[in-house]
Specification:
Strand content of chain A: 15-25%
Oligomer: homodimer
Strand order of the largest sheet of chain A: 3-2-1-4-11-10-5-6-9-7-8
Order of helices and strands of chain A: EHEHEHHEHEEHEHEHEHHEEHH
Number of helices of chain A: 12
């Protein structure tokens, strides 16, 4: 386990770049001597940020890029035209084998397109998918695909289920993870055409613990450890979670500040509540992996803090040590036989 | 506005039937002299419940039914075979014109099938859809289709948008409601094949205020007044809301009971918090209407209380008074011209 792990970090990606990206990189290399970070972005800006910190200078390398892909740009065009952007250059570092992994908080669209066009899929994987660790009442679950490939075919969902199961078992440490398919009812005959076609294929798989349908209501209520979905539905599920949590927390904060009495009560509850709500924050698990690509490509939230970048960089070491991509390769070869 | 409104209530539907159904019926007729309720179900059980209350006996009629459709039964088969069930008999009362509307907390599947097979669609409506009032930070929004017809075509979504807009404007009182299509990105080029095909059709409509895409994250954050979705995605959105709210409230309650200190704090906050969470409860708006059918067919939650039944019965009066189905008929004739 002494192997160095090299990660390309899109230093210009996200709302708080390069301040938080550089800070996260320094925190990560100071914590983990095996990590080497390639900071891709505008060199003068990155240097100015780096000057604030103490760190082993061998552990961080700057890869100068003159361009940045903006969130609003059409992804395919941006990836094709902006060859000197931080995102594209970071992708190329993974493609050519200089880096084992990539972390970005930049444009989701460019990330998904670049991952598939530049870095490329593992042989045998028809389409990659975006997985996300989501909070549940008693822990976390793994939801995929959260938006990489809409209008997927049954074969794709079957591969997502297997990749999700491997990620959950190895990375999240869930023994024999319960895999469910996101559905609008608990029974086998429920669902749309895609789910009905996919269901029997999942039942046939011997290398996952398929438990049947998982209703959206049960995703946060420990209904399954891995929830497989077509990208549109998966994205709706994930984004609804974010919206409802945000709305509900806003409402509760409002209630606590509504009178002198409630403000006093809030003082008593504050720290316990903060701790509870933190357990609903999955930042410690790193970012969302685009599974099925060569190397590890990780997308973190646009609003990521240095802590999120640090955790995503450490996630890359764990992912590499656990040889998750090798396990995916092996399992898919077995399935093909 | 002196017209009597006759509603068939599936007295055996829901977890707490017939106790809560009968109680809700009595509460509603005592509040609204124009209401007449036809309680469909097992006569001896209904009579025993009715004996507990004071009410105008002309306002409630019992329609004896020997059968009940269970939640787990395959819906099509149940609706075809159980001719003497409370759900089917209530549907027939609407079909034959004895009743203006129906309320049930019974099997969702049987409700959706029965509505379409027994009661039937308004002429010109290709498929009905299930609409639900959902809570937002500052009020409510109307989400449809929440599960009536999966794998819809663009034409269906166009009709859902128009029906949703009419319901929002008339029933919920929103002036020129902002209609959005549920999508996985804010831009027009985002989405799956169905959304991309539907988007330009919605843009062309002159009788709705179409504002473009609404991401799932923004449904609860006042992103639109009416959110149009294909049934699978709509159902995932709705059910995720329920699951996340339930998980989050469980967590927060746990935090408040975690120590003596927090318990004291909870005493100060309790009533304000209850009031806040109540604004996240949409029971006062009645149940979910299956729009596009003749008459009004309302589905309430399986766990409905008498209050939910009462509100759904009153909803039927408002819906009839506002002539919402006539407005739907008119607008669709205009669109066809």
């Amino acid at each position: 386990m002494d192997k160095q792990v090299k990660v390309a970090l899109d230093a210009m990606g996200g709302d708080n770049a390069p301040v938080e990206t550089v800070k996260g990189a320094v925190e990560a290399v100071n914590l983990e001597p095996r990590l080497k970070v390639f900071l891709c972005g505008k060199e003068p800006e990155i240097r100015a940020e780096l000057a604030k910190y103490q760190y082993n200078s061998d552990a961080i390398e700057i890869v100068h890029c003159s361009e940045v892909i903006e969130t609003a740009e059409p992804p395919v065009k941006a990836v094709r035209n902006k060859k000197d952007s931080s995102m594209v250059k970071a992708m190329n570092l993974v493609k050519e084998g200089t880096c084992d992994a990539l972390v970005t908080a930049g444009s989701s669209g460019a990330f998904l397109v670049g991952g598939q066009i530049i870095v490329g899929r593992i042989r045998g994987i028809d389409r990659p998918c975006l997985g996300t660790v989501v909070p549940t009442v008693s822990g976390v679950a793994f939801l995929l695909d959260c938006g990489a490939n809409v209008d997927a075919k049954p074969l794709n969902l079957v591969q997502f289920a297997q990749m999700g199961s491997i990620y959950s078992e190895n990375f999240l440490g869930v023994k024999s993870p319960r895999v469910g398919i996101l559905n609008i009812g608990a029974e086998e005959e429920k669902g749309n055409a895609l789910v009905k076609e996919t269901f029997p294929l999942l039942k046939e798989l011997t290398n996952i613990n398929f438990i049947g349908s998982c209703e959206a209501r049960d995703v946060c209520l420990d209904g399954a450890d891995v929830i497989v979905a077509e990208a549109f539905a998966g994205n709706v599920c994930l984004k609804t979670m974010e919206g409802v949590s945000s709305a509900l927390i806003k409402k509760i904060k409002g209630a606590m500040m509504s009178s002198l009495k409630t403000k006093i009560g809030a003082l008593f509850i504050k720290s316990a509540l903060k701790k509870t709500l933190k357990s609903f924050d999955t930042e410690s698990y790193g970012g969302a992996p685009l599974l099925g690509c060569k190397g590890l490509l990780v997308k973190t939230h646009g609003s990521s803090s240095s802590r999120a970048f640090k955790n995503s960089l450490l996630q890359c070491i764990k992912f590499t040590d656990l040889e998750i991509n090798e396990k995916i390769r092996q399992q898919l070869t077995e399935t093909e036989e």
